[in-house]
Amino acid sequence: MDDVPWTSTPLVGRSAEMAALLSAVDDAKTRRAGAVLLSGDAGVGKTRLLDEVATGAHERGFGVLVGHCTDFGDAGLPYLPFSEIFGRLSGDRPDLVESVLTNFPAIGRLLPTHRLIGAQPVPQEAQLDRAALFDAVLGAFTALSTSEPLLVIIEDAHWADDSTRDLIGFLITRLTAQRLALVVSYRSDDLHRRHPLRRPIAEWSRNPRVRRVNLLPLDADESRVLLDSLVTEPLPESEVRRILERAGGNAFFTEELVAAASMGDGDVVPPDLADLLLVRLDPLSDAARQVARVIAVAGRRVPHDLLTAVAGLPDRELDNALRELIDAHIIDVPANDRYYFRHALLAEAVYDDLLPGERVRQHSAYVQALKDQTVAGTAAELAGHATRSHNLAEAFEARVRAGEEAISVAAPQEALKHYELAMELFPNRSPESGIDKTWLTVETATAATLSSQHLRALKILRKALAELAADAPKLQRAQLLLPLADIALIIDQDQEANEAISQALKLVNDEPASVFKAHVASLYARVSDALGRPVDAERWALRALEIAREAGQESAMGDAGITLAVLRRRAGDPVGAVRQLEEAAVRAQLAGDAAAEIRSRFLLGSTHYEQGDLQNAKAALALAMRRAGELGRQWAAYGFDARRMLALTQFVLGEWDDAAATARTDSMTPNAASAALRAVEFAVRSGRGDTAVAEELERLRNWWDLDVMLPIIGLQPAVAAYCQLDRPTEAAKLIADVSTLCEDVFQSEWFMARIRFSTLGLQVLCHRAVGEPSAAAELVAKGSELLTAGLATAEKGLPPGRLMGVEGLAWLARLEAEWERLRWLTGIDPPTPEEHVSAWERTVDAFGYGYVYEQAWSRVRLSAALRAAGRVAEANEQVALAAEVGRELASKPLLDEVGGAEGGGGGATSLTSRETEVLALLAEGRTNRQLARELYISEKTVSVHVSNILAKLGVRSRTEAAAVARRDGLLD
Length: 972
Fold this sequence. Notes:
By secondary structure, the chain is mainly α. The chain is 66% helix and 4% strand. The chain has 48 helices and seven strands. The strands form two sheets. A five-stranded parallel β-sheet has the order 2-3-4-1-5, sandwiched between helices. The chain has a two-stranded antiparallel sheet with strand order 6-7. Strand 3 (150-155), helix 7 and strand 4 form a beta-alpha-beta unit. Helix 9 (220-230) packs across helix 11 (251-265) and helix 27 runs antiparallel to helix 28 (574-591). The radius of gyration is 34 Å and the shape is globular. The chain starts with 14 loop residues before the first helix and ends in a 5-residue tail after the last helix. Mean pLDDT is 85; it is low at 121-126, 266-271 and 900-906.
């Protein structure tokens, strides 16, 4: 289990970097697992340093495992370095690997023998769960580290595929008490601003178990020491200075320049580095140079049997050429039957020096060897060589096989890349190809959806339908329309979903019963439900069950059964719906129907949420999220929804730290999902006083159309932030923008979120009423419009027979209470004190189902109404209850409002500047009317300020407030 290389090049300097790396190794030996990110420019000496670290770890009793990432171009082999690690381990220690496979069978999918072209395709039902694979890799490393501590090195991560980056990120987040050290190296000069590794590096670096080591160029003294160690005879000082200046501290460049000078080219150093590198090949034999070219075409590394098949040289001549390359330090000593260039720059220079015809011929030779299975190879390798050899028919077949292989190991991002390249190559397919374009299109769209790229999936399907011939078979068109409708429904494009599934239903109407026909009927039922047509939804869900039975495929009944459960919930039988959904989840899990299982578990959680049963909602959604992760559907429909809704449920319950943790993203999170989850993060941050969320939501506008729930969730924290910043105009504009978007998405002005939006609009008007008494009439007029819109939505927004959930009822009560408050603040048709108190009491009770934060704010408003009604003791009780919640949640805005930011009652230290100004005039005996006239505000606004002052000072009367102010020197 030891990948300890040998090199003759001396290691110069690097003592600090070496110490940092070996410190991580020593920590791992004492069960303090950690990771090191080693960065540096190409040629600066990262591999040489890692060689030395591997040797040091070996001497300390460590097992050393090394995997390399390779540049495959557009799309590569998922998890390549881990395949290399476990493949090499299976060759060196088959007994050990057998034990690992017994305990972690998912590792078998990564073994090279499973991923070769000749391997049998993995059946659809046997696709590997992404979470299971990641857990298996972690488990395998942990198990291996029990017998001896383990150092795992991943080199050249700048070439890593998406799935490899995700797996590295997963391992980093799971490092705890294992005897495991992980080192990841990458070229820092390759990391341009849009390089896919930049974001993961930033994410990984925030982990406290991760250290970063940046390998800088050698200084002048170190470079001279290196140069002296490389020459057999001293070079002229002028030549030495020229080499050192040109190398710039880069160890590899120094070696190459010294080698060029030693061969007599010192007087004329080539101006281009590629020319400089190629000088090393000039003294070699023709056979050695040819073998170097063959290796370069393969990539940086090539196994002996593949090299033998492609080089076309007799064994003895090939051996001599290889020995010549090794002696010249062009390639390294072979390990485990693989030859590799000492440095990627040299391999790139050799490859770039090939004439176009030479490249094509060499790639063609590799294609032939891999295609005939003369040697072992992967579909991704074959696809790359076939593309570069212009054998596009072979490239097409290989890309499809590579996509299937990527899906089988839960790597949808890589599958999407391969499938899209296959789509481009489809016109070049062989006449004998049995791959159907419709099938390939659907697989491509599915991979995009599993990668949380729903808009991309829709574009693929729309394009395919537009290009489909008018006389194409009906079933072929329906096969494209079904996933189009499904994906459109996922992202709330209900009208497009309806049009697509309606067409599909007509096309399959005369077809015999089949699983596909059952799926069409079932999806039509779901779309009907989304559009508020419960009768159609029930009819077609039942029809889908009939079709599935007729076809003898009861496994196709899951989705329709779930839709019937949803309809039952909406018909007023949530208890029966819960029972049906629980049964549906168990049946789907036993049948291996991942999509149906996650959908039923998510809907089970949302049913509990709608009924106000938040604890059971939290439990169901947590299970849905966990199962989605295990099934590799954490970013697909309902899997991601479960995560977001779980975070919202935790927020509502007042479990803000848990909500932030659930919504937290990392380098493994797709961009769309990351943007969507930030809305929940905004709620927590805004609740704690972070006003930056308003601008951040604005910057996410590009994502609003993709996922309308992002602005729906993010609106409230952003509006609160704008009000804290005293920017009500921007708050009102934001409400209007999100409302317009929702009208467009839902194709109705009576979308249910409008009740909450109208309430937020009234809150903004109340904020303005405090500081703009002259605008009272205008504010009340606008408030009346918002009240009307909210009440109309409550009446018209739900389909006939459907009942509003507890959260909707709570916001409806809040809407009416804010309207009372606005009229009370402006003094225009104000409610009686009893009416005002009663409105806020209803609101407090309505949010009592578990919405901790909103109930606390409702208590604050109730306290003001009670105090104005002369019920001071009750008002103080409501303030105390709100302050307790504020302290538990660490909510600065709430604590500031109730005067509890300092703990306890807050006292004078929490008075605002305006309240201090009012207190000074109040102590002089001014009446509310006099205060209003002097401060240019309304009497109602003065009343609010006086109520707040009394509450914060803990007194019951204006006289007591004046006395406390004088006693405590508050007026000085």
